[in-house]
Predict the structure.
Amino acid sequence: MMRLALSFLVPWTHKRLEDCACSSAIGGLAAGALSRLVRGATAQAGFSNPDTMATVAKTAVWGFAIVVAVNQLGIATTLINTLLIGAVGALALAAGLAFGLGGRDRAAAVLDRVSGQVEAAGPKLSRAANVAAEQGRATTQQGRQEYTGTERRRSFKV
């Protein structure tokens, strides 16, 4: 019985190991090629640290290659996928915070400018509010006079 179980397991495991080795080899070749490409492009563009950029690119490709290899083996695929999604989400959040906090000074300058404009417009708004209040009072007084005049006319007609 054990022999029968092993006869089914060995070819399946052998195939998965071949797939894992193949994806690891392709990932390693791609990591090396991308690393050289990034190093050359960043050096040509005049970046100050092309070796660091190349190392980051190589590490990222190797990381994805390892995830693919582990998925090929079928080892904790749900856990690995969840961790990968979490890592990508954390990187996206970090990038968003970096840009958001980096723009904090610009946002503060815009808010200061708007605040200055609002403060400068304060007296104008106050005068406009006073004029509107006076117009409202005048209209109300006029309406009262017309109403009482109508009431007086009605009382005389009866």
In short: The helical segments are 2-45, 50-73, 77-102, 104-157.
